[in-house]
Amino acid sequence: MLDTTPNLAVNKVLGDLEAALTEGDVQAAAALFEPEGYWRDLVAFTWNIRTMEGREEVAEMLRDQLADIVPRGWSITPGEEAEDGGGFLQAWIDFETGAGRGHGHVRIRDGKIWTLLTTLKELKGHEERRGPSRPKGVAHGADRARKTWAEQRAEEDAELGREIQPYVVIVGGGQGGIALGARLRQLEVPTIIVEKNERPGDSWRKRYKSLCLHDPVWYDHLPYIPFPENWPVFSPKDKIGDWLEMYTRVMELNYWGGTLAEQARWNDDKKEWELRVRRNGEEVLLRPKQLVLATGMSGKPNLPVFPGQEVFKGEQHHSSQHPGPDAYIGKKVVVIGSNNSAHDICAALWEAGADVTMVQRSSTHIVRSEPLMEHGLGALYSEQALANGITTDKADLIFASIPYGLLPDFQKPIYDTIRELDADFYAGLEKAGFMLDWGDDGTGLFMKYLRRGSGYYIDVGASQLIIDGKIRLKSGSDVDRLTEDAVILKDGTELPADLVVYATGYGSMNGWAADLISQEVADRVGKCWGLGSGTTKDPGPWEGEERNMWKPTHQEALWFHGGNLHQSRHYSQFLSLQLKARQVDIPTPVWGMRAVRHLS
What we know:
The chain is α/β, with parallel strands linked by helices.
């Protein structure tokens, strides 16, 4: 069969790229990109998560990495065809490096590479045992020394962390730590997950009772075991908690619940961590070679300090400690904040019969769940996407193939459409006095999430309560002080209160590093999260990737893993491969470490 024109065109560029790289001709390889083209690499070439922007950065990376990486075998993925994307050609591609096998995506305009995604798929000689290579599970025949599966698991649980030290310790047993633990288990990396809560899933169970996932089921699968086809679109917190507990057991994770990580210290002479934990009242010293903080992208709760908090006679707590509305029926509640948690808590309190007021101190981006699912996620994460052959893994890679420098151009039209479709809804919010925004550049929710991790609400009902006046709103004024029984705003407004909820967000994840290790190490690492976009709460310089997430940091053997379920699933693959490579002494020359940033 004759090759099609898109396949011919893509194969021509891939052939030219392979020839240039094989010959070590860095300038010829860089010239195959558009002058401002993008190469996003997830570990395969840089042993980092890095986007090269423009020919010079591409050439710089190749000059430093090409001799170590030794790429070859560039081809369109078997079973896939190059496609006309409307003004560009695109194709799924495969390649190899000296250390592993890679997969990626390319977009080509006028014969030049516009965007290239390269990802490390597996390490040679250390592939996951899956499919035809899956473990047998039982050795047939008679053996007096045979140990059952349960006996082997009990023995591993008794020895790991005592007679045998783990190679990796993950501090934090929420969805991020669990997803990474599952990846490492399949790569046969001895790992312990340390979690202060007793049971997997408790980090969900212990939150306010109305909490649910605002992202849809297609977006939220964990590695290896997708949710069943009858799983609800939006998962209640306790259902997610049960799923995480089941998953932890089925995936055979070494999960130390009820264990508090108290202090960690890097031993530079031995090249290992000394991590002191308290498990069931007993102090245990772990000595992993790698330490991962999976304590949540949101980091430590931001607790504001206002005059009079010490004299307030009612109850006050951060939203992360809010138990739910049941104890506050008929009470007056003031919620400080106007993002996701604030809206959820206000709505649940109103449903329970509380008199609730939201204090909005700065503008918030609102998008209703229904149009977000249709216009923001539907093309990649929906039943229709599945019907179109877009699996979750493929959707993740399609999204990853769009460099963050280009993503605003893809996102803004989505939110322009939503703003027009829901014009009456937004007019109602503004009439109620709600301060709305669409991000500094009109790019909406997901760019706000990537840039600052705050400043938005996916509306599942609370906004209509604000429009109708059922949730009282006081916007545009900050808190001045608390009295014995009220919150006083700077404009003089007095809000009587039996309860004050501080839905005031979270700080950077490196705050956990300061608590567990030292302020010196936290300062050495710098801020976690943010792209350096120069927008509100994400000051420059431009980073091009999330700061310090899922990749090497300026503290040896310290890693950060977090984000939503989608990011926990997707990036756990690349973090696990980085850790496995170090365990088996594969050279990992890291390229493109950014300067440390210290940002509020």
